[in-house]
Amino acid sequence: MINQQILLANRPTGTPTKQTFKFVESDVKQPEQGEILVRSLYVSVDPYMRGRMVDAPSYVAPYELNEVITGGVVAEVVESQSDKFTKGDVVIGSYGWQTHYTAKETEIRKIDKEIAPLSTHLGILGMTGLTAYFGLLEIGKPQEGETVVISGAAGAVGSAVGQIARIKGARVVGIAGSDEKVQYLKEELGFDEAINYKTTTNMVDALAAACPNGVDVYFDNVGGEISDAVHTQLNRFARIPICGAISSYNLKGEDVGPRIQTTLVKKSALMQGFTLGNYAERFPEGSAALAQWLTEGKLSYQETIKEGFENIPDTFLDLFKGTNIGKLLVKVADVTNE
Amino acid sequence: MINQQILLANRPTGTPTKQTFKFVESDVKQPEQGEILVRSLYVSVDPYMRGRMVDAPSYVAPYELNEVITGGVVAEVVESQSDKFTKGDVVIGSYGWQTHYTAKETEIRKIDKEIAPLSTHLGILGMTGLTAYFGLLEIGKPQEGETVVISGAAGAVGSAVGQIARIKGARVVGIAGSDEKVQYLKEELGFDEAINYKTTTNMVDALAAACPNGVDVYFDNVGGEISDAVHTQLNRFARIPICGAISSYNLKGEDVGPRIQTTLVKKSALMQGFTLGNYAERFPEGSAALAQWLTEGKLSYQETIKEGFENIPDTFLDLFKGTNIGKLLVKVADVTNE
After folding, report:
1. Which residues of A touch B271 (CB under 8 A)?
2. Dihedral of alpha carbons B279, B285, B290, B291, sign
3. Would you say which domain of life the source belongs to (chains A, B) (predicted)?
4. What is the value of ipTM here, to two decimals?
5. Least Cα separation, residue B243 to chain A (angstroms)
6. What's the pLDDT tens digit per position in B299-322?
7. Which of A34-43, A194-203, B250-259, B276-285 has the lowest mean pLDDT?
8. Which CATH number fits domain A127-277: 3.30.300.30, 3.40.920.10, 3.40.50.720, 3.40.50.620?
9. CATH number of B2-123+301-331: 3.30.70.100, 3.90.180.10, 3.30.300.20, 3.30.1330.30?
10. B256, A256: Cβ pair inside 8 Å?
């Protein structure tokens, strides 16, 4: 049996290209005692992966050159030498961009096939949903009647943040990059307002109009000039969870703009970066809450699912074009018994 | 009896000048029932006053044009029509740059003449000491063995922050603007390291050498390029209380530099602006702790006291030259019974 893998061929400066990646094939390693051979079904592509492609200090180690790009995968057990897993089980792991993997028992976790489509375990019930849950509730702490602004609002994390903020009784304003996304946020997800930053000439004015009572929580996925504009509308004691700064990831030069210190002092505002791993001990709590809201119909999600292992790099590059709505992932194979 | 006052004559752009201020004289208003006539002894000049001279939204209302510049004053009761105050009492108030004031009972507070020199109630036992106490302990939360870096370290707030951090068992590194200040921090206040940013060509390297275990808490008084350099040395879960950004106050253009979001995400770091008023309910706790440390000899302070009401504007302008060590204030009159 052949395992297809995608390796990091070289470290990108600026936007990654096809040459950043290299496809290789190797024999699948047969599982030994305590190991499980799995076959990938859905592979996740996420913005944070861009950060791991460069060799700089960060919250996770950089990818090694000529090693497989790791990240979330939903997979099916093909062969088990462990009494914890059975052929046909569906599992989640972090082994990344490859069609097969021989996992140790501790490297994968069984998921419930009945609760929702399998792909949601990489999205709304997985990393992106939990990122929204902990970042918003632990740092943003939205109160009933407060105004929550979200950048990258139609993305996988942003769309969950807005819905959770609404569940908590906040007024929710999203910023996104197309009229289609704006319509999705307002009509499908019930955002109170949404702004297309690409067609808005004055973001400060647009935000002031959309947030007549100012901004209490700003969930920041993008950084850059969009965030500069939101910072002008902060209320006293505003909270700013920083989830990412996708606008800067592919910059070749420095990410330069207005320094934030004076604004933070004037508003007694808080800005805090985070990564999901900070909350690892509380994942069961977060997953349970997300699953319940999903079941109750309070939380909806959208996925953009591309097909085919060979399309993983292109799908990853799509993240930075801002064209996708919701969680972006790649379907690599059908589940056997579906 | 004549009251001398200093008014805001016009709003400065860039560094204030003598023309920013106007001296006027008026008759002292005799106290009515419930009022107290006081005579100023020490007048405080503080960096935050620069912010109030412009008409922009901030945590305190801007000064009105042609009104007295308000701020902390230690004064002596000249005549009391209140049963809460007696002639000769020493009080603290916020009525600002004038030689006399007719206060309502609620506008002034009696201070203990015995505990320490009267001037300390504007400094280490007053606004600056409390600012250090709450900003460091409530936001910075230094733990034993952690590294705390302080900019504007030889200033009134910074020098108190460093000493409190040492009381809490942290390693303390100060950044200041002269060799004299560096010597003061290391030899008088017991800082572990101090850096003269004016003679250091590479602040990043200097900080890396002074903080071999990285930076856990950065108490920021200055903003600007000094802070940019400190941000390169942050540890995971670092905390950054933002007390002020004196480097930017007199800028005519925008305060532009590297955006901070990516750093905050990579380090799961927290940055929070604050002003002392946020902690008003807890002033008694802070004052008691500061007084105790002072009495125990764990906390020392330095003051730069200029003489003469007419020198208040020049002394205020000295703040931005960075020449003073410790708390800067102006002695306006001797206490009667000293």
Report:
1. 260-261, 264, 270-272
2. positive
3. Bacteria
4. 0.87
5. 7
6. 999 999 999 999 999 999 998 887
7. B250-259
8. 3.40.50.720
9. 3.90.180.10
10. yes
